[in-house]
Amino acid sequence: MPIEPGPGPTLERALALYPVLAAVDPALHELPATVFLRVPEGTVLFREQAPCLGFPIVLEGEVKVSRHAADGRSLELYRVSPGEICLVSSACLFRGTPLAARGVATRPTELILADPRTFERWLQSPGFRALVLGLYAERMAELTELIDAVAFQRLDQRLAAALLGHGPDIATTHQALAEDLGTAREIVSRLLRRFERDGWIACGREHIRILDAAALRRASGPR
């Protein structure tokens, strides 16, 4: 639901996360209430091929941005956390083209959705323009790493790497892993069964237990 703009915790948090917003025109307190949003987990904020309705500035929560294929497969591109920007939205606004990916709130999320006209006016502020272009460059570097992983790493390496760094017990599904890796669930299931036969993991319902993290680390490295 929309939240009211004006002096208070919401604007204070926005300025703490994005200090350059203190110098933009129009000022935050001048924006309409519909620009300040609070949405539940699972809310689709934008979709592929739709016009971009605005530039999202995340104050709380997280937005997952992913590409989806006609056969149902998807590939996560990146996530937008507080203090970060959405590359897909900014590219759409810069070029005036439809959106190239989908954005979904992964948890209850609070954000400012600056409409295209407001975003264009904000870009006239040197500080805001530098922030957007700087974070844009960082996002491009992340996407380059993702392209390298998809194009040059074997899927078993990527799956082994995806299982690491979450502790010994992971609450996830084969489908969720497949979406993260941009492949089919059946392929992930087959690889997980192989890892389980090798004694690296134990699979349960929506749960994976890591039994041999060292083996997964070796499997995730270059070959």
UniProtKB/TrEMBL annotation:
Gene3D superfamilies annotated for this entry?
Answer: Jelly Rolls (2.60.120.10), Winged helix-like DNA-binding domain superfamily/Winged helix DNA-binding domain (1.10.10.10)
Which keywords annotate this record? DNA-binding, Transcription, Transcription regulation
GO annotation, cellular component aspect: cytosol
GO: which molecular function terms?
A: DNA binding; DNA-binding transcription factor activity
**Annotated protein name in UniProt:** CRP/FNR family transcriptional regulator
Q: Which CDD domains match?
A: CAP_ED
- Organism of origin is Tibeticola sediminis
Q: Which domain of life is it from?
A: Bacteria
Stored PANTHER family: CRP FAMILY TRANSCRIPTIONAL REGULATORY PROTEIN (PTHR24567), HTH-TYPE TRANSCRIPTIONAL REGULATOR ARCR (PTHR24567:SF74)
**HTH crp-type domain residues:** 153-214
